[in-house]
């Protein structure tokens, strides 16, 4: 809208002239009341502009007071009316002009005081529009957020130099906005008495028919009517003080002058008498004056300076009345002129005048009507316009300019009257009417400029229109569209001019304006709107109104416009318009339209070589279209992106976008695609073939999507698992949609284990021509992909260790050196290997049936595997065109062992037995070529006892221990057997592990392993009973019956039932030991008990009970007497007293074996739960708290076998004591009556003390005192003492008197020290006395 | 001179199913522009209130979507949100009723084509027969 003159845009107000008493004018103007309206308001960039414009005014009267106006001229631009007066053609005297102008500037400054401007600024910022004055929007910003036209849209402050032409939007001088305004109802201007110009008298001779107007609208008419020709003139008359008649005459003549001055313009008159005091209104002088004035007394007023405010209200009301009347009359006059005239131009002019007058009267409907009439009239005349009549296009330019003026008014009024639809329709009509350019071809660009501007103005109107509330809903109302079209016409303008610019660029005519791009001529020089001004170089000629200027002049203007055009930054113009379009369109959230505008912006940036911005917008754009799947548009965006990226020298992005661009979804042509493919190759091979050159500085890795539309890759392991040391295949399928055959350089497959990595290379350079003879889908070794071909690459992998093998990446390299590497990170999306339902890695089952079924199934799968892997049939390979199950991992398992391990043995084993085991390997696999069996037996974990274990090939320790065994070749289904022996010296749970490794004839190595549990027991449970020589069970075991159970671990000394009570106590620790050492006194106590006593005969009964499930044969049972060392080596107490520990005879036996009851019995069968008994007669030779007298050695064999094993069972630990006194009673076994027999008691003192004894012989009670069966000699009663370690002998002679069983006399020997009777002599003994047969015979 | 310059069918998710321009001697640039126009018109269709909600078949016609400088864009939307869009020259003056009939015919062609069991729903129509039929239909307006 900056192109339109302010006078035209502003809402016109009636003009009232003030004459006389200038001091009053200021107050009048100040007190004029205002009315509110919503209308355009000129926004000045900054407050200093006004002062500068005033200065400007001061220095150059002819220039416009409106700072904005200076920026808008062009050869056909809408020339602002501005101040039309100039030196040479002003109809007004210079003095009046000066006054008018000054007055105008006052008005201007009044309306735009700095405070007000700043207020406007605030409003602007409140409206979230950027302030126009300090707009620092970068030129690249797509969205200058501003509603108004003008300064704020200026892209840069620096770029506007030389772009003033046509650059309404570029103008730095402000813009327009719509605001609530309080405008004065009247505009006043000071006029000198008689200062009004005279209306040009129509020459009566010239009839209206013959009058040929030179133009349609006079350029100065609007300004004249708004600024210089008042509708009403108010004459202020200072009431003279002196009352002299002379002063009255002056007043009267003044009235006359004014009246005559305004008469022919029909201007209304008001007279105001200014008095300092009240005067008599019926004064004679006043009456004369009234008469002279000849006006309605209503308009004859009086005022005193004190009441001026009140007066102004009254005055303005009257002035408005008159003014309305004036404009009404003007309308009528003009209407009558219409009827008189026939010339179409005049028709337009008059209709315009009526419309404008009506607008001043605020009669907008009439105004709109007449503007429309005027427009229609103009269109009618346009139809008559022929290009031939208008060779330079000047008339057409005038037409369109006037039409633009009218269209603006029509649109604006329609919109303001809430009839936007009408405005739209009118604009549509307007544009259609002027779409076809009439005029010289070289000026066509000016027409594009004009259309662009029309769209822009209309868009601005729509944007500013307060009633346009539907612009977010209805796109027709949206200014965005019009801005967008405006931008398009700017680019058309550029295109049109481009063809010209070459012709004129070097033209001397154009270049001479280089330094002076401001319009040469003054704005006010125009005579008619839309016509070039007459040449000021010849002002007199110009004033003649002859617009037919010579050719040179026209060329001059044209060249000037070209010079200006040459300096236009179209891009910023266009971008700015697009930005506004974008901003406006975004209000409705029309993202597709926004995308379209984005693409337009991007294109504009592209052609202005702002590739970075172009890239930015196209990328955004491409995103939207990709989401919407609009491939055609996406293709375009991508192709533009590619070009931009190429220009920006971004090879990496180029490759990326090229990949996108080549995607088969897009709608680009084959040629385009192959060009891009070629470019890709050039980047790698010969960058000089691209302009600008583009090459990679380092290898580029392109991470490919799983299924890239251009090139996709799938991988597959045919199986989910395989076995170690076998072969498996790995398939890689590529599907290429490159438009042309393409040769890659290498294919790399990477696994998580490096040693499996594979690579295929194609040595032929990628740029070399690919032979057309290459057959599609044929088996080839190269890396050439024909268009839309899928190729399958098979890799054979030799599996090694057991692991989970995963394919991690597949890389396809294009080129060597700085190559493009397409990488598929398979592991990121791959499906992991299938879960194997049956865990074939588990140990072979012991049970036969499952293992058989296992074998069957695995045989099946195996044969399948074989088919796949070994037989390289084409048919077994997956079809690369079909989707196959993608599987990037494979589980490498050990080869499934198909042999069966069995052990034949008869459990349990017995301690010390060479336990016979037979291993049997049944081969269910292929023929076994070789193999190894490893034997392993668990070593003991119990540290307390040492158990010797071993595996032997023979049943004796001398044979070689068996740890491994080489397998011979075993045929399929055959079995292998081998016997071996396991020895174990103690009871244990033996775990025998057998590991079998073998290799079949196919070279498949398998492992199998099995554990066998073999319990080792003693198996025979012996019980021992000790008796003394009296067959008295030894009472050494309190609570027990003297038996001990040597079975099982009890032998080892751990507490058990029976014997363990004593044994355990002794083992238990030194307490018992200490008791023994503290004194021998205690030991005397034991003399009474039936413990095992040293040096006294002992009977041992061993009862062996079999707990074995099988029968054995006991060959022989012997008792091996232990040596002292052996018995000591057992956990025993230290040697008892009297046996020094450093006794050199440690090898001496602890006892003496007298006899063995079973010495001559051999081979006794012993089945389960039967007993075997054997008696031994032994004499312990030493004493001890816990002494094992020896070992029972059982020689046995299995009933079925022949191997005799020896099972030693140690005797339980027993306490062997010694008496302090060893008493030996020697009595014959029988006596004979009458034959004396000796009864000897030997007492050995085993202590270290002298022992004293008392001896008393008591007759048994049955004897009575006399009736004794014996005669008796010896001491009846005595005392004696025995020295240590010596023996004392008491001898009695008994003479039996009576035959029969007689108790012997009681030889009571009591130790004095112990005060106890000796045990041996305690019990009464009997003696059989035989009758003396000799006596009988006699 | 043909009035219709472009016929477009847009799927439920605003993806193009069929776009064909029919003006002779159209430049590549203008072809692209037609695509843009059709695409932009989707914005208008989305914004159009009213007829979409009613279940009356005749209301499937959306009327003039928007005028561009050179073309007028008319729209038609089925109940299944398939949009038919035609772009006609701005100079041509066509009655709404005629356009409605045209759209009806176009829709029945579309239905026939997409009833083909080999047609994948919501995919681009590549049937040559359909193209031919549409081409034959053009002069009817």
TrEMBL record, chain A:
Residue intervals of the Trafficking protein particle complex subunit domain: 395-657
Location of the region described as Disordered in the Swiss-Prot/TrEMBL record: 49-73, 851-880
UniProt biased composition (Low complexity): 59-73, 851-868
A matching Pfam family: Foie-gras_1
Source organism phylogeny: Eukaryota, Amoebozoa, Evosea, Eumycetozoa, Dictyostelia
Polar residues composition bias: residue spans: 49-58
UniProt superkingdom: Eukaryota
Protein name: Trafficking protein particle complex subunit 11 domain-containing protein
Protein species of origin: Polysphondylium violaceum
InterPro entries on file: TPC11
Automatic annotation (TrEMBL), chain B:
One GO-annotated biological process of the protein: endoplasmic reticulum to Golgi vesicle-mediated transport
Top-level lineage group: Eukaryota
Any Gene Ontology CC annotation: cytoplasm
UniProt-listed CDD domains: TRAPPC2L (cd14854)
InterPro entries registered for this protein in UniProt: Longin-like_dom_sf, Sedlin, TRAPPC2L
Family: Belongs to the TRAPP small subunits family. Sedlin subfamily.
Name assigned to this protein: Trafficking protein particle complex subunit 2-like protein
Organism of origin: Polysphondylium violaceum
Lineage, opening ranks: Eukaryota, Amoebozoa, Evosea, Eumycetozoa, Dictyostelia
């Amino acid at each position: 809208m900056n192109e339109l003159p302010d006078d035209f845009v502003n809402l016109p107000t009636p003009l009232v002239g003030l004459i006389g008493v200038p001091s009053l004018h200021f107050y009048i103007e100040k007190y004029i009341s205002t009315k509110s309206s919503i209308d355009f308001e000129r926004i000045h960039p900054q407050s200093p502009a006004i002062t500068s414009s005033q200065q400007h005014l001061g220095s150059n009267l002819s220039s416009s007071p409106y700072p904005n106006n200076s920026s808008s001229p062009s050869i056909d631009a809408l020339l602002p009316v501005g101040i039309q007066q100039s030196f040479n053609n002003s109809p007004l005297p210079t003095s009046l002009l000066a006054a008018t102008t000054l007055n105008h500037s006052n008005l201007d400054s009044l309306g735009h005081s700095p405070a007000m401007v700043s207020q406007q600024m605030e409003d602007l910022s409140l409206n979230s529009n950027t302030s126009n004055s300090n707009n620092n929007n970068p030129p690249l910003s797509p969205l200058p957020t501003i509603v108004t036209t003008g300064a704020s849209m200026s892209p840069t402050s620096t770029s506007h130099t030389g772009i003033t032409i046509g650059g309404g939007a570029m103008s730095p001088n402000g813009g327009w906005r719509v605001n609530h305004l309080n405008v004065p109802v009247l505009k006043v201007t000071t006029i000198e008495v008689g200062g009004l110009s005279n209306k040009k008298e129509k020459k009566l001779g010239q009839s209206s028919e013959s009058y040929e107007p030179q133009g349609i609208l006079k350029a100065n008419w609007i300004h004249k009517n708004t600024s210089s020709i008042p509708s009403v003139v108010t004459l202020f008359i200072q009431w003279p003080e002196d009352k002299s008649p002379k002063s009255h005459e002056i007043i009267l003549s003044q009235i006359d002058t004014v009246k005559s001055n305004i008469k022919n313009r029909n201007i209304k008159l008001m007279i105001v008498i200014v008095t300092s005091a009240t005067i008599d209104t019926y004064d004679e002088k006043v009456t004369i004056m009234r008469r002279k004035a000849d006006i309605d007394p209503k308009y004859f007023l009086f005022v005193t300076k004190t009441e001026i405010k009140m007066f102004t209200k009254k005055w303005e009301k009257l002035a408005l009345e008159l003014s309305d009347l004036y404009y009404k009359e003007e309308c009528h006059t003009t209407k009558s002129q219409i009827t008189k005239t026939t010339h179409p131009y005049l028709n337009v002019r008059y209709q315009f005048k009526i419309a404008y007058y009506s607008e001043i009267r605020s009669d907008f409907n009439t105004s709109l009507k007449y503007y429309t009439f005027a427009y229609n009239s103009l269109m009618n005349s346009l139809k008559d316009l022929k290009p031939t009549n208008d060779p330079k296009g000047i008339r057409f330019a005038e037409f369109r300019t006037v039409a633009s003026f009218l269209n603006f008014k029509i649109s604006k009024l329609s919109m303001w009257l809430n009839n936007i639809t009408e405005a739209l329709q009118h604009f549509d009509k307007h544009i259609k009417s002027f779409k076809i350019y009439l005029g010289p071809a070289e000026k066509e660009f000016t027409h594009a400029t004009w259309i662009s501007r029309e769209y822009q103005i209309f868009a601005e109107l729509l944007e500013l229109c307060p009633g346009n509330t539907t612009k977010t809903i209805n796109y027709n109302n949206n200014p965005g569209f019009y801005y967008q079209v405006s931008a398009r016409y700017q680019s058309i303008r550029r295109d049109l001019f481009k063809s010209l610019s070459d012709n004129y660029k070097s033209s001397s005519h154009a270049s001479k304006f280089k330094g002076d791009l401001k319009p040469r001529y003054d704005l006010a020089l125009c005579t008619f709107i839309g016509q070039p001004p007459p040449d000021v170089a010849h002002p007199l000629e110009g004033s003649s109104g002859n617009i037919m200027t010579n050719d040179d002049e026209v060329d001059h203007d044209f060249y000037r416009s070209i010079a200006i055009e040459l300096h236009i930054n179209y891009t910023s113009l266009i971008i700015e318009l697009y930005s506004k379009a974008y901003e406006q369109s975004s209000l409705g959230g029309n993202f597709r339209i926004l995308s379209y505008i984005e693409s337009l912006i991007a294109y504009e940036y592209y052609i202005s070589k702002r590739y970075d911005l172009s890239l930015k917008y196209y990328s955004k754009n491409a995103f939207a279209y990709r989401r919407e799947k609009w491939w055609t548009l996406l293709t375009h965006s991508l192709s533009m992106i590619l070009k931009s990226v190429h220009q920006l020298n971004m090879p990496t992005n180029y490759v990326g976008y090229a990949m996108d661009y080549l995607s088969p979804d897009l709608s680009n042509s084959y040629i385009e695609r192959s060009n891009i493919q070629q470019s890709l190759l050039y980047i790698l091979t010969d960058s000089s073939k691209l302009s600008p050159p583009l090459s990679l500085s380092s290898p580029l890795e392109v991470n490919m999507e799983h299924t890239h539309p251009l090139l996709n890759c799938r991988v597959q392991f045919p199986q989910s698992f395989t076995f170690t040391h076998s072969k498996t295949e790995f398939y890689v399928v590529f599907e290429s949609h490159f438009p042309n055959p393409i040769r890659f350089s290498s294919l790399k497959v990477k696994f998580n284990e490096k040693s499996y990595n594979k690579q295929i290379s194609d040595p032929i350079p990628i740029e070399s021509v690919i032979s057309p003879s290459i057959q599609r889908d044929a088996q080839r070794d190269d890396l050439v992909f024909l268009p839309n071909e899928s190729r399958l690459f098979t890799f054979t992998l030799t599996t090694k260790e057991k692991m989970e093998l995963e394919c991690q990446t597949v890389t396809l390299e294009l080129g060597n050196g700085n190559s493009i590497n397409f990488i598929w990170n398979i592991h990121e999306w791959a499906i992991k290997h299938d879960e194997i339902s049956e865990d074939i890695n588990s140990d072979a089952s012991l049970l036969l049936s499952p293992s058989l079924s296992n074998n069957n199934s695995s045989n099946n799968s195996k044969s399948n595997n074989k088919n796949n892997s070994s037989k390289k049939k084409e048919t077994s390979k997956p079809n690369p065109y079909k989707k196959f199950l993608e599987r990037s991992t494979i589980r490498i398992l050990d080869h499934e062992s198909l042999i069966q391990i069995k052990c034949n043995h008869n459990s349990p084993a017995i301690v010390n037995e060479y336990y016979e085991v037979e291993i049997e390997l049944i081969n269910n696999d292929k023929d076994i070529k070789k193999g190894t069996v490893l034997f392993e037996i668990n070593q003991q974990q119990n540290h307390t006892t040492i158990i010797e274990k071993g595996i032997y090939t023979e049943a004796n320790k001398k044979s070689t221990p068996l740890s491994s065994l080489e397998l011979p070749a075993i045929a399929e289904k055959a079995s292998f057997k081998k016997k071996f022996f396991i020895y174990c010296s103690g009871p244990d749970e033996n775990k025998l592990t057998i590991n079998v490794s073998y290799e079949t004839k196919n070279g498949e190595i398998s492992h199998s392993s099995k554990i066998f549990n073999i319990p080792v027991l003693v198996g025979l449970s012996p019980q021992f009973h000790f008796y003394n020589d009296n067959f008295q069970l030894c009472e050494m075991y309190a609570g027990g019956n003297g038996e001990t159970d040597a079975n099982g671990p009890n032998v080892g000394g751990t507490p058990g039932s029976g014997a363990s009570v004593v044994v355990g106590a002794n083992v238990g620790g030194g307490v018992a030991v200490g008791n023994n050492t503290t004194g021998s006194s205690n030991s005397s106590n034991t003399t009474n008990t039936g413990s095992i006593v040293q040096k006294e005969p002992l009977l041992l009964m061993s009862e062996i009970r079999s707990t074995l499930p099988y029968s054995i044969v006991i060959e022989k049972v012997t008792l091996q007497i232990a040596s002292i060392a052996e018995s000591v080596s057992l956990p025993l107490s230290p040697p008892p007293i009297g046996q020094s520990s450093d006794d050199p005879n440690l090898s001496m036996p602890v006892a003496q074996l007298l006899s063995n009851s079973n010495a001559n019995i051999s081979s006794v069968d012993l089945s389960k739960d039967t007993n075997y008994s054997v008696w031994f007669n032994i004499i312990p030779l030493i004493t001890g708290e816990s002494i094992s007298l020896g070992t029972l050695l059982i020689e046995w064999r299995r009933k079925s076998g022949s191997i005799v094993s020896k099972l030693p069972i140690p005797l339980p630990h027993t306490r062997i004591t010694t008496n302090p006194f060893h008493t030996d009673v020697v009595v014959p076994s029988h006596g004979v009556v009458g034959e004396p027999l000796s009864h000897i008691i030997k007492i050995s003192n085993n202590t270290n003390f002298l022992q004293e004894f008392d001896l008393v012989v008591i007759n048994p009670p049955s004897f009575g005192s006399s009736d004794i069966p014996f005669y008796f000699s010896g001491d009846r009663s005595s005392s004696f003492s025995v020295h240590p370690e010596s023996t004392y002998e008491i001898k009695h002679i008994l003479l039996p008197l009576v035959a029969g069983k007689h108790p012997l006399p009681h030889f009571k020997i009591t130790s004095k020290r112990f005060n106890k009777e000796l045990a041996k002599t305690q019990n009464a003994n009997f003696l059989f006395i035989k009758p003396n047969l000799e006596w009988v015979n006699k | 001179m043909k009035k219709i310059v472009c016929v477009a069918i847009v799927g439920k998710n605003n993806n193009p199913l069929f776009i064909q321009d029919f003006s002779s001697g159209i430049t590549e640039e203008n072809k692209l522009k037609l695509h843009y126009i059709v695409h932009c018109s989707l914005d208008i269709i989305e914004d159009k209130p009213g007829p979409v909600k009613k279940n009356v078949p005749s209301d499937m016609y959306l009327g003039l979507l928007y005028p561009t400088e050179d073309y007028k864009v008319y729209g038609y939307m089925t109940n299944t949100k398939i949009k038919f869009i035609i772009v006609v020259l701005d100079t041509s003056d066509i009655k709404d009723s005629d356009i409605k009939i045209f759209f009806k015919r176009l829709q029945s062609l579309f239905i026939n084509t997409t009833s083909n069991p080999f047609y994948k729903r919501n995919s681009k129509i590549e049937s040559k027969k359909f193209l031919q039929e549409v081409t034959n239909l053009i002069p009817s307006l």
